Each structure stands twice: as C-alpha cells, then as structure tokens.
Model the fold of this input.
Amino acid sequence: MMVVGVGCGPGMMTVEAIDRLRKASKIFGSARSIELAGEYIPSGCAVTAIEDYSRLHELPEDAVVLSTGDPMLAGLGLLGGEVVPGISSMQCAFSRLRLPLTQAVVVDAHGKDAEAAMTEMLDELERGRIPFVLTGPDFDLDALTAMMTKRDIECTMVLCEELGYPNESISFGNAEHPPMASSRLFSLILANGR
Done:
C-alpha cells in the first residue's frame, strides 16, 4: 500500500505525488482528496471513495490511498507501506503567516477529548511553542476562550479556513474577541506576542 499526500488545496501536490498517481491502477480516498488529485488520475484507474476509514487495512496491497494535506499530519501515513508527502495545512498556514516551523507543535483536537486538547494547546503555548490545532467541525472556540480567560492567557488566535482554496481566509482575534469560523474546514494557531 502507498499513501500519497495530495496537499491541503488545489495546486498543492508535489511532483513526486503527481508521478505516483499517474502510475496508479487502484486509488482510494475521500471525495475531497479524489477531487484534488483528479487531473492526475490516469484513465482506466479504478477509483473508490472511502466511506469507512476503519476498514483501510482490508485494501489491496497495490492500493494507493489519498490523504489530504500530508499523510503524517493527518495520520493516514501510519497505515504502513510507502508514504509520499504532501503540502500540509500547517506548512501553508505557517508560510502565509511567516511563522517559524521550528517553534510549532501539532495538537490534534479532531474527534478527541476537547478539554484535554485545549489544555494541551495552552500548556504548549505557555512553554513558548506555537500550537497548530487540527480541529473538527464541533470544535468549541467559546470553550477555548473561557479556558484562556480562566488561566489568564493572552495570545493571538489565528483562524485559518479553506487553506489553499480560492476562498482561503485567515482571521485574527484573542480571548476577548475571538475569530469566528464560517467553514467546517479550519485550523487554529495560538501565538504569543504576535
């Protein structure tokens, strides 16, 4: 099995990823990842949309699994086999904001214990790191700002929506005036003194 990162938005695939897709005979991925890779999928290639990610271990050995962003950030790279990197939402966001990746720490709040994820991101911020938070559609910004206020943490909240897409949006705020998400596809960065 090979896991290929298709980037976080249109035009964000690497040359290596494109080359691997052009040679594939069986491709599996989410509807979004298939759309991002569409122009590079060869005719005659069997393409299957994944509905149930718990059954990925049942895919054939010669399967190419598409991962939005980078497979090691999203986690699909942990399936085993070869991994071809992609341009992640984190790389895109930190480049847009001119933030050093050497200070970044990833916090996965997607489908996780929300309070534990929020505690982790604030702990990392207090350590001088820049948390990049992978959120889910149910991520509660109000609960995060309440926790920030309770812990007396002042920082810039950066809400990154639809990164890599034409309607990309990056908005700024703080605990008192948090940015508001208008999309289900967003990530969050917390930065001290920025």
Summary: The chain is about 25% helix and 25% strand.
